[in-house]
Each structure stands twice: as C-alpha cells, then as structure tokens.
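User: Some background: our group keeps a shared notebook of sequences we're curious about, and every so often someone picks one and asks for a predicted structure to add to the entry. Today it's my turn. The entry only has the sequence so far, pasted here. Could you supply the structure so I can complete it?
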Amino acid sequence: MAMNALGKVIIAACVSMVLVYFVLYMGQYNMLTQSTEAIVCQKEKEKDGVFISGVKPVASHPVETYRPEPSNIPVLPVQQSDWNIRRPTYNLSQSVTQSDWFTAAMFLEIDFRQRPRDYICQNTSQMGNWYVCLDGKFFPDDPCLVYSFGMGVKDHIRNSSVHFHAIGLGGKVIENFNARKDMYVKEKQTWTIMTLGSIMAALGHKDRDLDVLKIDVEGHEWAVIEYLLQSGLLNRIKQFSLEYHLFPDWPAKSEYPKLLSIYRQLGRRGFKKFWTGLHPLDHRPDRFNIQADTGYVNMRYKRKRS
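Assistant: Of course. Here's the predicted structure to add to the notebook entry:
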C-alpha cells in the first residue's frame, strides 16, 4: 500500500495526524511482511520516545513460545452449505480434484467468489489498492493507530512523522532469520523477525488497540494469523486487511486443509469480510495460484484502551 494512500484514511479519521511507518523487510516467500506502517495522532508524538528510527529491540524481549496446530486436519468447508455446492474441476483429473489439497483450495475459492462480503459497510474509502470501513464503531479513533506491513525498504525517516524500520513480521521472534532466495531476494540475507506483540511493545504500543492492521506478506500471512489466534491480540484489532496467497510451491499443498481451518477460525472470532478482491487464478497443479485481497471488520471489537 502506498504511504500517501494510507495517510488519507487517517487524515480523514483523525485530527492533527502523524504517520509512523516501520518497514518490515522480507522476500516473497519469507516468513514476514515486507513493510509496516503505523499511524498515530499528533498528541502522541512525544510520548515515550516512540518515534525513534531503526528500532531493533529484539534482544530485550524474550522469544515468544508459539506452538501451531498439528497439520493433520480434516477438510471442512467454510460453511456447511458449501458441501452442496458443485465444486469446480477445471477439467483436471480426479486424482487432483478429489485430493484434500484441491478440495480445501476450492472451499477457499468458493468463499472468496460467492461470499466476497459478510458485512455491508455503508461508508468505505479506497486507499491505493485497499479499502477502509468508516462505519460507526469501526471508524478510526483519535488518537488512532494503524500498522501496515508489506514494503521492502531500509530504515529511514521520510519526514519528522514518518519512520521506516527494517524489521520483519512473523509468527515468532527470530533474531537471525535466513531469508529464502526468490524473485525478490537474489543473494543471502539475514533479517530480524518479530511478532506483532513484540513490535507493539518495542514501539510503546503494547497497551494500544489497532484501528487498522494491514499485512501483505506473500504467503506467510497464514503463520501471522495463526499467531494472532493464539496470542489474544485479535480482540484489539478493529479492522484487518490482508492478501491471502497460495503459490505453486508455497505454502505446501499438504498444508491446505490446515490453512482452510485457520481461515475459518478468523471468521468464527467475529471478523467479517466487508470486501474481497479475487486475483486471476491458475488451477494447474504445477502452477497453482490463488490470491485474494480481503478487508475485515471485527464485529466483537470493544474499545478498552485510551
């Protein structure tokens, strides 16, 4: 998401706004996000020295223990009625269409295609390729706080109120993460990876709620969601925007039933889609690709913190 685009929504929602961006650098298939933007209103500018460039406080935070679910998970649809929908076969062999991985992927595609919205937002604002819901209790507060992960830049300060930090977002804290080589990472790179909770603590936001959390982390959103489900942070997120990815070789097709379960859990926790943008698809097994931009509102959100 472009920084200027995201700024518009906060400017629309808050008075005397300050944008704070901390960029989480990562490659396409690596376990983080490429960037993060955090937005805080002007009254917070001097508080606790939050806006210091180049924050890398991993050593001062213990590694968070996180145990994901076992991968042997049955294929269950997003909704029970999906069993009655004729799932597409795309002229593929039965050995493919009757497999667990393809069935799980088709349940995801059915939900993206046939239920692109679970909540009808009356007032949306487009920010770059993303949307923000400005309805009632989902309207960003003053002071407001927004994190956006998905760019790949080094530490720098754009101006006095916009800071970038080269820190990665993942499902656990890793001080020396060896990035996987791909179309974005051509040579060996080592990154610092932190969880959302540890990043918020490092930046002085551990007691704050997030008005908007946006992540575009090229396949590792699944690990981040899994962490959020376990950490208790979901209750503190008002809006959640992300891009879902199923790439040809990442995540592994054997994990698709588990990913479907993660997707279902997010909905059961009260997160309702108010928009979905489904990308062009490729169903050939060796080139299989599903991507969908999605925006959620947290129907269970209750303001707890000042």
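Suggested note for the entry: Confidence is low (pLDDT under 50) at residues 1-36, 38-68. DSSP finds six helices and 14 strands in the chain.
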